[in-house]
Amino acid sequence: MTKLKSLTEVDFENEVALVVTTGGGEKETIIGVGRFAIVDAPAGRRSAELAFTVEEDFHGQGIAGCLLERLACLAREKGISQFEAEILAENQAMIAVFARSGLPMKQSMSSGVVHVTLSLTDTMP
Fold first, then answer.
1. 51 exposed, middle or buried (CB, 10 Å; 0-12, 13-18, 19+)?
2. Which fold would CATH assign to domain 3-119?
3. Model pTM?
4. Distance in angstroms (rounded) separating the CA atoms of residues 60 and 123
5. Mean pLDDT across the stretch 86-99?
C-alpha cells in the first residue's frame, strides 16, 4: 500500500481517522486530523497507535482534545483497551492534551521521545 493510500483510505475497522475542517464548499480546509491504527498488544490487550496533526494557526483551541475524546469513544466500541503514542519531548502542548484527557496515563522517555500509554478502561495494567 502506498503512503498516500494509507493516509487517505481508512477502513474504520483497523484504522480510524477523523478530520476537522473550517470554511465550506470550495473553501473548506482540513485544519486537524486525529487517527488510530490497531496494533498487536501484549497479554491479549487490544491497543492502537494514536496520532494527531493540527495546523499551526489553530493550536491551543482544543482541536486535538476534541478529536481524542471522539477517537476514544470509537476505540472503546471496537474493544480497544489502550492508546499508544510517541511524542517529541519538546512537544509539551501535545503531552498536556493527553494529560488533560482524564484518561489514566503512563509515560516514559527515551532519546528525546516520550512514549505515552492512555488507558481506555478505568485503570492502567
1. middle
2. Aminopeptidase (3.40.630)
3. 0.86
4. 28
5. 96
The answer on pLDDT for 82 being more than 80 is yes
**Domains of the chain by residue range:** 3-119
DSSP E strands: which ranges in the chain?
Answer: 15-22, 29-39, 47-54, 82-88, 105-110, 113-119
Report the half-sphere exposure of 116 (CA within 13 A, side-chain side): 23
CA atoms of 88 and 79, how far apart (whole Å): 28
pLDDT, one tens digit per residue, over 9-46 is 777 788 999 999 998 888 899 999 999 998 876 666 78
Please give the pLDDT value at position 121: 87
One-letter amino acid at 52 equals: F
pLDDT higher at 112 or 8: 112
Handedness of CA 59, 62, 66, 71 (dihedral sign): positive
Residue with cell 522517555: 109
φ/ψ (deg, to 5) at 4: -60, -45
